[in-house]
Automatic annotation (TrEMBL):
Protein known as: 4-hydroxy-tetrahydrodipicolinate synthase
Residue spans of biased composition, Low complexity class: 38-47
Top EC class, one word: lyase
Molecular-function annotations in GO: 4-hydroxy-tetrahydrodipicolinate synthase activity
Length: 385
């Protein structure tokens, strides 16, 4: 069992009380979320043709309206200082719709655990399975309720530049602090196309570029990153190609976050990364904070967490974290296909790993940390919602 963390610690009761107090002070209307004068995009929506200078000018006005207290440069600088960003899970109701009450409890526990930012609707949050209406709604909700407590980074990238531009405009209009932008996948493009694609979305506001060749099948060349880094809205890169790549960037002044939890400790302490955009922090935020924000390197904690990290990634993300949060009672055992839960044997392996780490370090459903033995027939797999 691991020793207790440094830093923040809140009991489940305190977390829930804080959530209730927060919700009482907020009002929920389409106007307050930013939708009144701005149509929500759909995955097939189109946008008006504008040149980049006109688009940037229009967005500067929108950004100023929705982020009154901070300039773009101030937000870029703030993003660069984040060491622990959670790629937050999106929980579902049994109907398959987004379960906002459970989502809010998950976010509250991230805040209590000392997480500094959230990626909303990323791969872990299954943005790829959302309509743009759902996507922008969740960004708006998170920004409205939690924007004072942590940075909200909306995953508004797409393999279509048109959709990325439209969704990014909408995301900033409803209050997100920064955008996460992936390179076009499947329909891959040239180096010149990459520059034009990223240039179009960088005009809107603070941006983290995401390089994950295992998913996109295209590695963003370092030369492209160095060129993009000249843009004032470029905050940095989420890099999944290892710590040597990160070291090359950081020694040349490019801010990086590791996209690999098992490499994140060394990425920060040895390769100069700002931190990590993490999956594991969904289930153990305080331990990930200690790993990334402790006063000195902690190789023992790194090694203690490796079995958990490897279990979470035994199948493609987000299968592991979805299964874990269902076992912890923090999400209904509902999966949008094509994702399906771990089998019984693998779930039991995870239970032993979490018990070895110590259940007091994990998020819970408000009734004390415990692991539920979820049966195969309790999982709901949906092909429509």
């Amino acid at each position: 069992m691991l020793s207790s963390c440094l830093c923040v610690s809140s009991s489940p009761k305190i977390v829930l009380e804080k959530h209730q107090q927060r919700m009482q002070t907020k009002t929920f209307t389409k106007t307050s979320c930013g939708f009144k004068n701005s149509p929500s995009p759909t995955k097939s929506s189109s946008s008006s043709r504008r040149d980049s200078s006109t688009r940037a000018s229009i967005h500067t006005q929108v950004f100023a309206t929705n982020n009154k207290s901070k300039s773009k440069q101030a937000l870029v600088d703030e993003v660069k200082k984040c060491s622990l960003i959670t790629a937050i899970k999106t929980p579902y109701l049994k109907s398959g719709k987004i379960d906002l009450p459970k989502y809010d409890v998950l976010v509250e526990q991230q805040i209590a655990g000392g997480v500094q930012g959230l990626v909303v609707g990323g791969t872990t949050g299954e943005g790829q399975l959302m309509s743009w209406d759902e996507h922008i709604m969740l960004i708006a909700h998170t920004s409205k309720i939690y924007g004072d407590d942590l940075l909200v980074i909306g995953n508004t990238g797409s393999n279509s530049t048109r959709e990325a531009v439209h969704a990014t405009s909408q995301g900033f209009a409803v209050g997100m602090d920064a955008a996460l932008q992936i390179n076009p996948y499947y329909g891959k493009t040239s180096r010149a196309g990459l520059m034009k694609h990223f240039g179009a979305v960088l005009d809107f506001g603070p941006t983290i570029v995401y390089n994950v060749p295992a998913r996109t099948t295209q590695d963003i060349p370092s030369e492209v990153i160095f060129e993009l880094a000249k843009h004032p809205n470029f905050a940095g890169v989420k890099e999944c190609e290892g710590n040597e790549r990160i070291r090359n960037y950081t020694k040349n002044g490019v801010t990086c976050w590791s996209g690999n939890d098992d490499e994140a400790h060394d990425a920060k302490w040895d390769a100069g990364a700002a931190g990590v955009i993490s999956v594991t922090s969904n289930v153990a935020p305080k331990l990930m904070r200690e790993l990334m924000l402790g006063p000195k390197p902690n190789p023992k904690l790194r090694d203690d967490l490796i079995p958990l990290m490897r279990w979470l990634f035994k199948e493609p993300n987000p299968i592991g974290v979805n299964t874990a949060l269902a076992m912890l009672g923090c999400a209904e055992p509902v999966f949008r296909l094509p994702y399906a839960p771990y089998d019984e044997k693998t779930r039991q392996e995870g239970k032993k790993i979490m018990e070895t780490v110590g259940l007091e370090h994990f998020v819970d459903a408000g009734d004390g940390a415990r692991i539920r033995d979820v049966r195969d027939d309790e999982f709901i797999l949906l092909d429509e919602w």
